[in-house]
Amino acid sequence: MVVLNFTLTPEAASEIHDLLVCLGKFSDTVAIEARRERFTFTALNSSKSAYAAATLVGKQFFSTYECVPTQGGPDGRFTCSIYTRALLSVFKARLHDPLGRDGAISRCEVSVQENANTCRFIVKMVCNQGVIKTYKLTYEAVDVMHALFDRNMAKNRWSMRAGGLREYVEYFGTRTEMLDIFSGEEGDGRVVFKSFTEKISNGKEVLKHPLVTAVAVNTSDFEEFNVQPGMHIIISVKDFKAIVIHADTLKTSVKAFYSQPTRPLQFSYGSDGLLCEFTLMTSGDYNGPATAPTPAPQIPSRLASRAQSATDSRSMPPPTSPASRRSARRQAAPRKASSPKPQPDPESLFVNQDEEEDSRWEPLDHNEEETLGWDAAADRDAGSFPTFRDSGSFSKVEVATTVGADGMEGIAPSQRVSQVKGLW
Amino acid sequence: MRFKASIQNITTFTKLTASLNSLGPLAWVKLSDDQVCFTIIPEQGTQVWAALSIDTIFETYTVQSAANNVINLEVPLGPLNRALKSALNATSAQIRLTKKDNMPLLALTIVTTSSSNTYSAFPTGGANDDGFDAPFDDLGGGGNRETIITQEVPVRVLGPDVVSGLHEPQCREPDVHIILPPLMQLKSISDRFTKLALAGARTGAGSSAARTRLDMAANMHGCLKMSIKTDAMSISSVWTDLSNPELDPSQVAGGTIGIAEHPSTRMKLLGSADGRSDQGWASVRIDGRDWGKVMSVGRLGGRVIACFCHEHALILYVYLPTDNGEDESVLTYYVSSYSA
């Protein structure tokens, strides 16, 4: 049985709140990976174009921290996934309140209870006047995946105070989708953050087009600025906003690392035992000059690949190596999946992916057994099993795993096909 | 076709667009040599015809076109308001009509000196050893970080033939004209009335539109009455000691004789200053929710004269405060009355 216990100060608990708010903008669930020395929250958005990881250093961030995974020795880990909303309803706003008003806590104790029947994440909020609120959250044991990002490849770097970036973000119009970060031509000394929406519309619709906002900033306003002149790199405004707003709560600086459009970009910031890294897919040269391509490894610019038990994105192997480590099953994938795909569509932020690639991202299904589907169409000519169809079950399983607790609408399979066979 | 101006009064312009936006998302903006007109004609509800002197919002203003230097635009107010908001702390803001990819747009160029946050003076590096530390260069040069923001608002250019069909509503001479009490007061009371009426409507029958009908009435003795009536309740508020401005003979058709025959002159003979008399009231029935939108103009802080045409219409003239007292800018709201 796994041992995971930690205690948080009110300040740290409220930092967890801020962090969860930010991660909630990326995904409905957060994955947790606990190791002996540190604790990591990760979130991956549904289009798999953005990955967030926040690492809390055991000794620094927590008042006490103890994690003994069941297996794996010193490199072992405990992983699970929890609904972001469920966690947020426990880690509410204003847990830390110096005046001790409603909702303020004096400390927060977290432990994990795992046995054959239950998986519970237990949070005890020790409030003032001896009130203790205990929350038991159900978690799902899943494999945690990490995005790979090779900082050695990312020659373009800048760093700026989150407060400054936040100011720029506030100028952006609502409903815009994309952000183009354009490093001006040589000697220009300017960087332009431009929020826009690429949508072709005509006639009366033109007026519904969201505002296009360009914020031109002097490179001297950056703490560091070292980017190839004339480069346009495009990410999602929503992601950028979430990151900048969270970074601003930490009063820290945001660092950006990237190589070229269509390859991932990473934002990184942290303070006092909390390190956040966001790996985002970027898209191409938005009406800019062709950039001299930096030599790229001959591997698709996947935002992320599965790196089981990989420790930290920086110590992870660079994107070239996963090819050799691919499992036999993955090697069976069509060859074209691994040919480099420059993105022809500048609007798309998403990694080009086929089904095989997509399924790699699915959480491991531990209940891989034959399940019985229900053919609502009741097509009598469909085959030897007029009302039951095995092939139809896959999508249902998927729905069940993603919808989870609140998705009780579907009819759960009750029998195995092998058992049914005898009946017919 | 050229239009370029620097925005002299960003706050007023922002408040104006916000107020107009509450009535309708699109404005017809007419730029000419001596005036800037904003007109909102929503499919339902109140129309606004605003005529502003140039210097109410602009300075160094140029407008040129083949059609007598008049430019007519259709402008989405939401984005324009949003764009102007980003100029609230600006050191300068310019607006011009331009084209990009053959699409006309109003481009705002805003120069701000960002308020420097001082916290980065002590970099909080954390456990981050990726080769570059935050330098201390923020210590000295705080104040002069200049940022240039460009906001592009899509617009449509309207041809003279399109706008020639748009006319300001015509209305007969009003029965009562009165200066309204502070709009915030008026708005909070009318909002409260509407809310109460809607709360009752949820349980009772009948459409909610009929339920939020406000009765507004005024007399020529400084009284204004607002009331709402539903099956379950009847509430009203009465203001007294408001002022009924004197008509200017030079502004009324027929001069002094015109005033003598003016409906309001006859109304003066009826009713009383304590608002208790049943006589002498000119009243209109308006939709409470629409009225709430009209009241949004209160943020501009102008003087408001309400003209009541009994059982026909309510016309509000909102006079914007000006520095020089001349060239007044007026927003005219046409609120039509429901029949009983």
Automatic annotation (TrEMBL), chain A:
<keyword id="KW-0227">DNA damage</keyword>
<dbReference type="InterPro" id="IPR026584">
    <property type="entry name" value="Rad9"/>
</dbReference>
<dbReference type="GO" id="GO:0006281">
    <property type="term" value="P:DNA repair"/>
</dbReference>
<dbReference type="GO" id="GO:0031573">
    <property type="term" value="P:mitotic intra-S DNA damage checkpoint signaling"/>
</dbReference>
<comment type="function">
    <text>Acts in DNA repair and mutagenesis. Involved in promoting resistance to ionizing radiation and UV light, as well as regulating cell cycle progression after irradiation.</text>
</comment>
<dbReference type="GO" id="GO:0071479">
    <property type="term" value="P:cellular response to ionizing radiation"/>
</dbReference>
<dbReference type="InterPro" id="IPR007268">
    <property type="entry name" value="Rad9/Ddc1"/>
</dbReference>
<comment type="similarity">
    <text>Belongs to the rad9 family.</text>
</comment>
<dbReference type="Pfam" id="PF04139">
    <property type="entry name" value="Rad9"/>
</dbReference>
<dbReference type="InterPro" id="IPR046938">
    <property type="entry name" value="DNA_clamp_sf"/>
</dbReference>
<dbReference type="GO" id="GO:0000076">
    <property type="term" value="P:DNA replication checkpoint signaling"/>
</dbReference>
<dbReference type="GO" id="GO:0030896">
    <property type="term" value="C:checkpoint clamp complex"/>
</dbReference>
<protein>
    <recommendedName>
        <fullName>DNA repair protein rad9</fullName>
    </recommendedName>
</protein>
<feature type="region of interest" description="Disordered">
    <location>
        <begin position="289"/>
        <end position="377"/>
    </location>
</feature>
UniProtKB/TrEMBL annotation, chain B:
<dbReference type="Pfam" id="PF04005">
    <property type="entry name" value="Hus1"/>
</dbReference>
<protein>
    <recommendedName>
        <fullName>Checkpoint protein</fullName>
    </recommendedName>
</protein>
<dbReference type="GO" id="GO:0005730">
    <property type="term" value="C:nucleolus"/>
</dbReference>
<dbReference type="GO" id="GO:0035861">
    <property type="term" value="C:site of double-strand break"/>
</dbReference>
<dbReference type="InterPro" id="IPR007150">
    <property type="entry name" value="HUS1/Mec3"/>
</dbReference>
<dbReference type="GO" id="GO:0006289">
    <property type="term" value="P:nucleotide-excision repair"/>
</dbReference>
<dbReference type="GO" id="GO:0030896">
    <property type="term" value="C:checkpoint clamp complex"/>
</dbReference>
<keyword id="KW-0539">Nucleus</keyword>
<comment type="similarity">
    <text>Belongs to the HUS1 family.</text>
</comment>
<dbReference type="GO" id="GO:0033314">
    <property type="term" value="P:mitotic DNA replication checkpoint signaling"/>
</dbReference>
<dbReference type="GO" id="GO:0000723">
    <property type="term" value="P:telomere maintenance"/>
</dbReference>
<dbReference type="InterPro" id="IPR046938">
    <property type="entry name" value="DNA_clamp_sf"/>
</dbReference>
<dbReference type="InterPro" id="IPR016580">
    <property type="entry name" value="HUS1"/>
</dbReference>
<dbReference type="GO" id="GO:0031573">
    <property type="term" value="P:mitotic intra-S DNA damage checkpoint signaling"/>
</dbReference>
<dbReference type="GO" id="GO:0044778">
    <property type="term" value="P:meiotic DNA integrity checkpoint signaling"/>
</dbReference>
<dbReference type="GO" id="GO:0000724">
    <property type="term" value="P:double-strand break repair via homologous recombination"/>
</dbReference>
